[in-house]
Amino acid sequence: MQPMHPLSQTELSAVTVCSTSGRIRGCARYIHGNGYEVGLSYVCVLFINVTHVCSAVLKSLMYVCKTAGDFCLCSSSDLVSVLQLVCRMSSLVSHGFQSSKQDFSFGCWTVTAAKTHIMKSKDIERLAETMNMPALPEMLFGDNVLRIQHADGFGIEFNAIDALKRVNNMQDSVKVACAQEWQESRAESEASKEVVKRYDWTYTTDYRGTLLGEHLQIQVKPTAERIDMEKLRAREQIKFFEDVLLFEDELHDHGVSMISVKIRVMPTSFFLLLRFFLRVDGVLIRINDTRLYHEAGKNHMLREFSTRESQMSDLQHVPPAVYTDPNEVAPHLPLKLIECEKLEFPERATHTGSSD
Cβ(342)–Cβ(221) under 8 Å? Predict the structure, then answer.
């Protein structure tokens, strides 16, 4: 590669201002510190991943670069142009993106859905140290939450921090050739000589929610009772719907690891799906689902946790395009585990109906 001029402070800021991600900071540091050309597609992909803004220009440019073999290098002038575009778009993002918090009440229940920005790098680094993990997902929405709470105080919520606490931080979950490369690229300090600690770099979690309540709390008991999926398929008015992303990571461009939670509230019930989706390209696909269902008039919720998983080599009959869609690929994955629980409400709880 031919050296290029180091980025000016303005150009460097164009990269860092739109980012709270270590990967873009690392990209900027590399360009600025070494003065080398960088893959144009890499700049585009990083910006899209962090900001969730994928304009037609960036998307087309990224596709062309990927098609060319992902080694399409941009000249100094090209890079400056891209950074100027990124800077303008990041300004729109910072001014156009609004944190949101919605409260929806029905009967004695209130659903709260809060969505805000990705955690700042310094906060992620502190959290990683606290959790004894070398790295955390690149897109970590630490303040995002979906909460279902009864007027008496008990309930259940779903948040990213508690989901990460269920990740095995003692050993690798998936042994692949790219794991070491990926871990080394996530080392924050370039001068650090420490060996990267082993941990589950796929962030696989069996998180099922966090129970709420100081004086009154839900009791969890095993059950043979199942959620009636046929009843859920019946056409019924949806009074409230929300989808909240908790974290996402592209595993150093070797796949994706993400967890999100969505809920829909009907006049006589509510249904929630927490889904962890993992795709390690060329290796495996794994889905951990937590389904939560409550029907008006009942003194409990039903919770089902399931794991589906398959090696990529066993999915040769499935079109590769399906691999990227959790909803499409899930039926093709063998069921490895299912656990059913009844979340019983405290006896002193007031009426728990879902209807207004």
Answer: yes
